Amino acid sequence: MSDGKIKVNDQWGATVHSVREGRRATRTGLSHFAPCFSLYTAKDYTTVGGMGLPFLLNNAHEAVAVAEELYPKYFKDEFEQYGVVIGRMAHTSPYHLFTKDTAVRKLEDVKGLKVRAGGGTHAAIIGALGATQTSIPGAEAYTAMQRGIVDAIHFGDAIAPVFKVHEIAKFRTTNGFNVLTIEYCASSDFFNDLPKDLQLVYNAWARQMAQADAQGFYSVGDVKGLIRTKEAGVEVIDMPAAELDRWKAAVAPLTAKWIANEEKNGRPGQAFIDDVKALSAKYSAMSANDMFQLTVDSPNMGMYDFK
Fold it and tell me: If you ran DSSP here, which 8-state letter would residue 181 be given?
């Protein structure tokens, strides 16, 4: 897209820095583009945690479209105060419960379990179910379950095979509570040093990459991942609607509590939730192809301050 003017040097597997160090790495220029998951430093952020509230969004590509449209209004200041610009507002697909020894068929079965969660809003959801959340990186999930550090892992279907959870779990309980925000940050100096024509190229690429990742890895990956999970002999437990409603009731107070806290601190909590729901309805009415085409034809221009 840049005719070779922007050159990419990929470094994988924490060879330069860990995921948790991504924000600092992009701020200092150690990396120009890296994960900066707000859930790992949830105390540093406010409104963005609302994107992970239970049963608010349906899939990864819808979540990305909603978050990137809302970014200038709600999230831009949150991220740029740390000396970075946003790379993309990536999101996972909905999460489900993978367990090794306990078949979770009703709400009572999850109480007291030690569950791997990502932190922030995700941790609050696990706590509302009566479980104990343990915040560990996804790459450590397999070993943690193998050693009994956790009893369960709350993961998406696309992610589980990547970290080989399907090889150690015996049960998967469908719940689809939440998506996780897994943002990527970019170096402010790198972006600001680009001439305007390349800033526009970078923005177009970043918006397309956000949708490509959401649709390809997560939304399509969920289907493939669930097939692999079943082929591995994992029992997939789909709870009756009435039982799932009990789970929804258990986590419902989190949204009201989040809104009240936002309003208490002078932020528009209810307005934010209303905006998310309105955009969710807008994008859920579109096909994935149409959503991607929209990203190509009319990339969001509100993510950066262009020259």
Answer: B
